[in-house]
Amino acid sequence: MIDSYRFGSFVIDGKQYSCNIKLIRDKYAGTWDHGPHIVKTEHVKDLVRDKPEIIIIGTGASGTLKVPIDVQEYIGSKGIRVIIQRSGEAINTYNELIKKGKRVNALMHNTC
C-alpha cells in the first residue's frame, strides 16, 4: 500500500520516493521517465506483463500527465481494466482495491 502522497513525494512501506513510481502487486517496482508528460506503451509493458486485473495511472497532483488512447487500448486489449485519476485520488483507489484483494498494478506521477 501507499502510506502517503504529497506533491513530489510518495511514502511506501515507510520509505520516501521523490520520483515517479511503478507498483507491481503492492510493491515498489521502480521509477519511470515520462518525457513531455505523456505515458507511452513502453512505460506500462512490465505492469501489463504481470497480468493484473487493474492498472491505475496517477496523472499528478493537477492531472497534467496525459495517457493517450493507444496506451489505454493496449492495456484494455490484454483484458486489463485501466483507471486514470489524479495521483491523490488514484492512491486512494489503489489502496482500497489492494485491501479488497484485487490484483492491481500502478504507474504514479509525483508532481504536476
Report on the structure:
With 112 residues, the chain is α/β, with parallel strands linked by helices. The chain has one domain (2-108): 3-Layer(aba) Sandwich (Hypothetical Protein Mth938, Chain: A), CATH 3.40.1230.10. The chain has three helices and eight strands, in the order βββββαβαβαβ. β4 (21-24) and β5 (27-28) form a beta hairpin. It starts with a strand and ends with a strand.
Mean pLDDT across residues: 96
- Strand tally is 8
CATH architecture: 3-Layer(aba) Sandwich
CATH superfamily: MTH938-like
What is the CATH topology descriptor? Hypothetical Protein Mth938, Chain: A
Order of helices and strands: EEEEEHEHEHE
The largest sheet, given as strand count, sense and whether it forms a barrel, is: 5 strands, mixed
| Physical arrangement of strands within the biggest beta sheet | 5-4-8-6-7
In short:
The protein is of the alpha/beta class and 112 residues long. It contains three helices and eight strands; from the N terminus they run βββββαβαβαβ.
Key features?
single chain; 112 residues; alpha/beta; Hypothetical Protein Mth938, Chain: A; 3-stranded antiparallel β-sheet; 29% strand
Q: What topology does this entry show?
A:
Elements: E1 2-6, E2 9-12, E3 15-17, E4 21-24, E5 27-28, H1 41-49, E6 54-58, H2 69-77, E7 81-85, H3 87-99, E8 104-108
Parallel strand pairs: 6-7, 6-8
Antiparallel strand pairs: 1-2, 2-3, 4-5, 4-8
